[in-house]
Amino acid sequence: MDILSLFVTVPVLxxxxxxxxxxxxxxxxxAMVGSLIQLGMAINLxxxxxxxxxxxxxxxxxxxxxxxxxxxNIHYTVxxxxxxxxxxxxxxxxxxxxxxxxxxxxxxxxxxxxxxLVLSSxxxxxxxxxxxxxxxxFYEIAVIPMYLLIxxxxxxxxxxxxxxxxxxxxGASAVLLVGILGIYFNSNADGGALTFNxxxxxxxxxxxxxxxxxxxxxxxxxxxxxxxxxxxxxSPDGHASAPTAVSMLHAGxxxxxxxxxxxxxxxxxxxxxxxxxxxxxxxxxxxxxxxxAFGAIKQNDLKYINAYSSVSHLxxxxxxxxxxxxxxxxxxxxQSLSHGFMTALFFALIxxxxxxxxxxxxxxxxxxxxxxxxxxxxxxxxxxxxxxxxGFSGFVAEMNIFVGAFQHEDMxxxxxxxxxVSAIVVTAVYILRVVGIMLMGPIKNSEFLDMSDATWxxxxxxxxxxxxxxxxxxxxxxLSDMIMASLQPFIKGVL
Length: 495
Hints:
By secondary structure, the chain is mostly helical.
């Protein structure tokens, strides 16, 4: 079996093993071993990728192609570049961290881990797919388990949140499917056969009128999952009701499918449509960046604060992609990775705090630094990374985005960039507000004095996420260079 298909096969085999697991202990051990294998495969893929790149300058490497449905020329086609490899690493780390954070899950643990791994298999398959139809299938596999994970294991108005999330994402999927079919039926404009293959379609001159029509459908279909304003409302409610590990995967990994799909499909295959529509979606994404930041200030619930923060940070990813230059695109990919690690870490910490205090209302918390110092210090570090402090991943990503955005000299792009940059100041406000109220000052509830700090499995999950945040901030060049080299074939169509 090829090296990439293992990323889909191993989660499936882990799921089969979980079927025969008995009780929480066996279920979490099986899930942990399967997730560790996935992380090992992702690390091995990095070394294999650099070795292959030394002798192979193709757009994608490790490509494999198998006929799936001949009548419509649908193939199971896989391949990766530096961007795919980076996102596979992100996924493997967040999945493993989610398993450790769910170590004490007592309510249907076997079914919970199975659903979590079904989601992860869809994400892995999406990131390695080079066939639009196969990519769409994996997209659906990744999205559908969210309904069960929130509806069964969630809290609060979980049925409402699960249904709202599912309906909005399924609606976006319908729009996306129309866009994909539009690309498919225009993939023979140069006289060849109809195809879903992304690399083959990129060589076709799709008519401008078709690009103008299908770009917004494809963009919106993917970007709704990336919390595009004003279609973002499913996200805060979904985050607030989801169990901790699901929030981690939801914000840390699943929402990255939106930006990746915009980049890999909409921008790459419909570049003239991207140029024509960019102004409109820049307005929406810049609005989302500043709206999400101000929305976070108004919240007292920790999960809602982080959820609106995600709307802002992921709006910045879409904003950077719409700038249509290499520097901002590099920043968009770096921001996707940085946000994935940061928001997963935030949700892990929020889950730990809630399990001990039984509240997420920051006005009812206070002085936690005195009783749970490890969790509190890590929360401060995550906050500093989120507001873009040098030395952390957020600074590297945002610098690339704003430098790339300022390369446009016209007034429209400059004003949009200034609006987006101002979100950094707002981010600092809500991060420092939470730290001041929740961690500093006197302890507001005497029952909090008996709380225990992080356990070994919680610390393991935290460190898995913290190390990449610091690593990207201190030594970003190897990752940035890998991404920049992979951007070259994609940027040619829009320059």
